[in-house]
Amino acid sequence: MPIHVLRDVDVIADGYRLRGIMNSVALADSVDVLEATVFADAARRRVAGLRSANIDMEGFYDATLDKELYDRLGVANVPITVAPDGNAEGARAFFFRAIAGEYSHGGGIGEVNPFSLNAQGSDGSRLVRGTIMHNATRTTTANGTSRQLGAIAAGQKMYAALHVLAASGTTPTLNVVVGSDDNSGFLSGVNRITFAQATAIGSQWLTLDGPITDDYWRVQWTIAGTSPSFEFVVVLGIL
């Protein structure tokens, strides 16, 4: 059994990548275990309750990101993506919508100023295990790589997060669509998820209800403006 060593964890909160200032991250997906024992039982009876997602991050203070983290303290439903194996397209990622409840920094004289941040799931949905479908800077319209993520059964959803990390140019616009097909070549692709047009740093979160029998998925983007450039990340997951 291979041992997994954390070397290049990527964390994105809203439209900001925190990897360059972090040195510790702990992501937890938990279930409340509730006692339901009655008089006739010979032993304790327990049932699963509600699930909860939680993330603790530590690192070193950054003057630029400090304002962004501070401004989002107490703001609900901020998309957070964690990629434990690096952020290459096709890598696994965990993502959820969260509210930051604690942000602190400070240390002793002569020390590197540390920071810590805690955030918890805020929208009533679970932590999603998914796949990084796009992670690059783009200047022109194109299609991403198709990946066999699987069909969406009845009662399941496709969860999609878009993080726009940088935008430049004159009146730049970015339109991102997620499509599906029953073949890797997308000979009969169907648009399934359409994000709102992006023009600046930020994030979006959308869901798609099943059933959908298509099992191949890809990201398409349309970029317009004068000398436009966008760095963006798209994560998909079925739950």
What features would you describe in this structure?
There is one protein chain. This protein is mainly β and 239 residues long. It starts with 9 loop residues before the first strand and ends with a strand. Strands 1, 2, 3, 4, 5, 6, 7, 8, 9, 10, 11, 12, 13 and 14 form a 14-stranded antiparallel β-sheet that branches. It is globular. It is built from one helix and 14 strands.
Would you spell out the secondary-structure blueprint of this structure?
Blueprint: E1 10-13, E2 16-17, E3 22-35, E4 46-60, H1 63-71, E5 78-83, E6 92-105, E7 114-121, E8 128-138, E9 142-143, E10 147-148, E11 157-181, E12 190-194, E13 202-209, E14 216-238
Antiparallel strand pairs: 1-2, 1-5, 3-4, 4-7, 5-6, 6-7, 6-8, 8-14, 9-14, 10-14, 11-12, 11-13, 11-14
Structural class: mainly beta
Helix content: under 10%
Termini gap: 27 Å
Q: Please summarize the sheet with the most strands.
A: 14 strands, antiparallel
Mean of pLDDT: 97
Radius of gyration, CA atoms, in whole angstroms: 20 Å
Shape: globular
**pLDDT < 50 stretches:** none
Counted beta strands:
14
- Output the helix-strand order: EEEEHEEEEEEEEEE
As a percent range, the share of strand residues is over 45%
By DSSP (H or I, 4+ residues per run), the number of helices equals: 1
